[in-house]
Design a protein that fits this description.
alpha+beta; 4-stranded antiparallel sheet; 7 strands
Length: about 200
């Protein structure tokens, strides 16, 4: 039947990234040109592109590559205090043996056991709508002595006593868009977290 479009299939579903119903989008973009096979191929391509776009739009800004574990916590502040405790620092000290110069920030976070703490609240099942924070055990603060250098200080903070045990020093070539690269592990840092 020339001039008729193939019926939209219900398996394409609805997208949540502003493109609307994929079957309607396919019908708008894929005009039938004599063969229903051509329309089906075009519609399948439009659907595949829409799925890829929707996946790209749903990236987690705290973990764009999806490498980090998620942990449900009752509240973020106690989880942060626990991550800055003496036991957490001990685990961080052991993990620091596996970091190497030249590693990216993402690789260092993974080796150091970074995770996303998600505050569980009632019946909300959408993780992105809940309070969340990226935590690394033993991480106290980040100190930036210049636009090209950044130091992550690790230690513990218990009972008003702060101890800085080691620092991871990152550098970059360009202050505007350069990627941070680990330069060294400083086992005897002299700097403290700024208040």
């Amino acid at each position: 039947m020339a001039g008729r479009r193939a019926p939209a299939t219900s398996t394409l579903g609805t997208m949540h990234n502003g493109l609307g119903d994929r079957s309607k989008l396919a019908a708008m973009l894929c005009q039938p040109r004599g063969s229903s096979n051509g329309y089906r191929l075009c519609a399948a391509l439009v659907a595949a592109i829409a799925v890829v776009l929707s996946m790209g739009c749903m990236r987690d800004p705290l973990d764009p590559r999806g490498n980090l574990a998620r942990r449900l916590v009752s509240a973020l502040e106690p989880a942060e205090r626990q991550a800055q405790g003496r036991e957490a620092y001990g685990r961080a000290q052991m993990r620091s043996e596996r970091v190497r110069p030249g590693m990216s920030v993402t690789a260092v976070e993974k080796v150091m056991g970074a995770f996303i703490a998600v505050e569980a609240r009632g019946e909300v099942d959408d993780e992105f709508r809940l309070p969340r924070r990226k935590l690394i055990e033993g991480f106290l603060c980040s100190v930036m002595p210049s636009a090209l250098r950044n130091r992550w200080l690790f230690g513990y903070d218990e009972g008003g006593v702060e101890f800085v045990g080691f620092a991871l020093e990152f550098e970059r070539d360009d202050p505007e868009k350069g990627k941070w690269t680990l330069q060294r592990v400083d086992r005897k840092p002299n700097d403290d977290c700024e208040e």
